[in-house]
Amino acid sequence: MADWTENLPQAARDYLEGRRLDEVECIISDLPGIARGKAVPASKFARQTYFHLPDSIFYQTITGDWGEAAGEDGFIERDMILKPDMATASAAPWTGDWTLQVIHDAFDREGAPIPFSPRNVLKRVVQLYHDKGWKPIVAPEMEFFLVARNLDPAKEIEPMMGRSGRPAAARQAYSMTAVDEFGPVIDDIYDFAEAQGFEIDGITQEGGAGQLEINLRHGDPVKLADEVFYFKRLIREAAIRHNCFATFMAKPIEDEPGSAMHIHHSIIEKETGKNIFSGPQGGETDAFYHFLAGLQTHLPAGLAVMAPYVNSYRRYVKDHAAPINLEWGRDNRTTGIRVPLSGPESRRIENRIAGMDCNPYLGIAVSLACGYLGLMEETRPSRQFHGDAYAGDGDIPQVMGEALDLFDEAKALHDVLGPEFARVYGIVKRAEYEEFLQVISPWEREHLLLNV
């Protein structure tokens, strides 16, 4: 046991110091971003180099049903070989015993990466950058709501009760008093994050009732996607400890802002370490504008991945802190693409389109893929937008069906993400959308039952 634990990341070794490891959770992200896998005794994990799961975990819809994603061979449920990435070994500090989590990568029997495993999709896109001599850097921002426990799907979601005994209030962006209302939950989030070795760049109150934002330090896309994947779980666990729920739905409460996963991008030249978005004199380069153009051109087709559910499209509402178009502007939070204030070395581009409900591996992969296509096509963006972008027209899909149509037709994007991933993803999401269309909503019963 001592042999393999000596090679763990420092945070995992610190967590286990002087303690006996009981269990290891061997996990992998499915398409929605849910952790799938097996929990095994630590003694067994020490002896195994891989384990098996059926590839059908990637064919499931969010409701647990299956589309026709298995392909021409039918629903065989082939076993995948899942191998641990020990660099991801991390504490599970909310468990009753001493447990580690380890993210695994999925391969077929010939050793080839499973093309529709989300982590593999992101690795594929990152490798395209590396092949050009570039190193992509991202920084995700995570927005989420702390809400009252909700056990009845027919009941509206309500803000959680704060420390003062009053429900969380809206319109309190950046209020420290509002943050203090959630103090016990936030304390556990910090404690869990520290035990897992994650560095939080800051926690702020956002505009919605009970809505918080966590910023993460910039870094490698796969590592940051791993952290968001882990963070979703640890935040949920911290909330449950305090009799509330954490939700990453894009729009959980009507008339409140939605929750985004804003993604900041920059690209470093591997040989020189220089930001390719900035020239020798500190000005913006052609690469900067090509990346912008790639986002403007290809994000509509990628929206089905960054806004993966019918609820996602309720977030894109004027004047509710979410974009309605793909204009770009400097330090302009009304545009879908923002260039934050920065010096030449840290020049970056922010994608404000992605929702917090997306799979972090896939959301970051699609965002980088769109920028990559712009760099390859060497296209130019529209002119910089000045003023309030909400005053203009929306130019992104407003419903899931339209977004899926654009995604299904986007061959250039498929080639970057992987055609087999695109096939499986499109089938699964179409099955979810068609299932949703069979549901009659309370709005329909209220307004149509006796009036039409």
TrEMBL record:
GO terms for biological process: glutamine biosynthetic process; polyamine catabolic process. The keyword GTP-binding does not apply. Residues 118-452 form the GS catalytic domain. GO terms for molecular function: glutamine synthetase activity. Its cofactor is Mg(2+). Pfam families: Gln-synt_C (PF00120). It comes from the Bacteria. Keywords: Ligase, Magnesium. The keyword Ligase applies. Gene3D superfamilies: Glutamine synthetase, N-terminal domain, Glutamine synthetase/guanido kinase, catalytic domain. Coiled coil: none annotated. Belongs to the glutamine synthetase family. PANTHER family: GAMMA-GLUTAMYLPUTRESCINE SYNTHETASE, GS CATALYTIC DOMAIN-CONTAINING PROTEIN. This is L-glutamine synthetase.
